[in-house]
Design goal:
mainly beta; Pathogenesis-related Protein p14a; Neuraminidase; four-stranded antiparallel beta sheet; 4 helices
Length: 401
């Protein structure tokens, strides 16, 4: 099967091609196979006096994700291989992107098939300066490969930024770190926590808190279709340690230590009622505290805004750019209003204690930036820590990982 798609997005060119092969020899090492594919691509380019492609870590991550996606049988209409429909969002700062995908049993055979296809060859010798290769080899030897080609700015790194030490910033012990949840695949990637892992199903809404009071934040999900929250006490694949019916489809989940007992528990914001419903335990039951605050369209937040050893609610109002932070323990309390001219409605917000000083502050990801911006106080001109991260198409989260 050979397929070629050419898409134009605001003048930026994406070229996609796919190939499937019959059985052959078996490669047993995915990392070696990835290196071999890139070497062969650059040998082909050298024949045309073209500069070699550098490896860019963000492309490699997404190529591996997409090969895994195909190997698990997720392609539509029963196809064995498919292109990434969100290719334009896999990374940022690109001028052109291309993608080759294939399935077979050995590197050399797939490389030959790519080269003998005009569509694939066009990517191999295209006007690119980076590539990311991702290979998944199944137990039976079937090899899935994705190659993402990119033309972008010079100087991009083949290795991801070191966790906890980005742009000169060291996260102290006990500080919150960042992560992302991929709602399309149900995967989590937590800074400093090693490999991605699956937890949940597509469209689940992520939350992360210290559900058992052990000092570590772990993942949770709100499934709007059923009104259930599914909480884990470890950051790895598995079944929920706690499952609670709490809410209706429109509700937005949040969590915090509302009563200051050292255990963070569930809550929801119901936009149609502009009402918060907070529980002081991670168990089935009615809200321990409920109060009206905010309006439809507000983004609900939770954190220890003033270093008071308990969490309170907050809201950001995109329509006016105002941030409202409450100080109440098991209630609303006093509210501080802050204009946030640095935020725009499309920003995805996170909350954390980025410097372990006992006070939570905002962070945000601006779509298309590929960067977390973590503010160290509540003012728009606050000192900001920049964390490059694979954020495209993903929901940001934060916690003490």
């Amino acid at each position: 099967m050979i397929r070629r798609l050419i898409l134009l997005f605001t003048g930026l060119l994406l070229v996609l091609a796919a190939v499937a092969l019959p059985a052959g020899a078996v490669s047993t090492n995915e990392a070696v196979a990835e290196s071999d594919f890139l070497r062969l691509i650059n040998e082909r380019r050298a024949e045309f006096s073209l500069a070699p492609l550098g490896s860019y870590w963000d492309l490699v991550d997404d190529a591996r994700d997409h090969s895994r996606y195909q190997s698990e049988g997720n392609c539509p209409d029963g196809e064995r291989i498919c292109h990434n429909p969100a290719l334009g969002s896999v990374t940022t700062n690109w001028f052109a992107l291309g993608e080759n995908v294939g399935v077979g049993y050995d590197v050399d055979g797939l490389d030959r098939a790519f080269w003998e296809s005009a569509a694939h060859q066009a990517n191999v010798v295209g006007n690119y300066n980076y590539a990311g290769v991702g290979v998944v080899i199944q137990d039976g030897g079937t090899m899935y490969v994705t190659v993402v080609f990119m033309r972008g700015p010079e100087g991009l790194s083949p290795t991801p930024p070191a966790a906890g030490d980005v742009a000169g910033h060291e996260f102290p012990a006990g500080a919150d770190r960042v992560g992302v949840h991929d709602p399309g695949r149900g995967t989590w990637s937590l800074d400093g926590e090693g490999a991605d892992f699956y937890y949940g199903v597509p469209s689940d809404r992520p939350v992360a808190c210290d559900w058992d009071g052990d000092g570590d934040s772990t993942v949770g999900l709100y499934r709007a279709s059923t009104g259930y929250l599914y909480l884990r006490n470890v950051n790895e694949f598995g079944v929920a340690d706690i499952a609670i019916f709490y809410g209706i489809p429109e509700d937005v989940p949040l969590c915090g230590d509302w009563d200051g007992d050292g255990i963070e528990s569930i809550g929801i914001f119901r936009p149609s009622e502009s009402t918060f419903y907070l529980r002081n335990s991670n168990s089935l039951g009615f809200a321990d505290v409920e109060f009206r605050f905010g309006r439809s369209g507000d983004i609900p937040l939770a954190g220890d805004w003033f270093g008071s050893d308990h969490d309170s609610i907050g809201v950001f109002r995109p329509s006016t750019g105002m941030l409202y932070l409450a100080d109440g323990k098991n209630g609303l309390g006093n509210v501080m209003a802050l204009p946030r001219t640095d935020l725009v409605p499309a920003d995805q917000l996170v909350v954390g204690d980025w410097d372990a000083d006992g006070t939570d502050t905002l962070g945000f990801v601006r779509p298309g930036s590929g960067t977390f911006r973590l503010l160290l106080d509540h003012q728009p001109d606050a000192e900001t820590v920049l964390i490059p991260f694979r954020t495209a198409g993903r929901t940001p989260v934060a916690g003490v990982w």
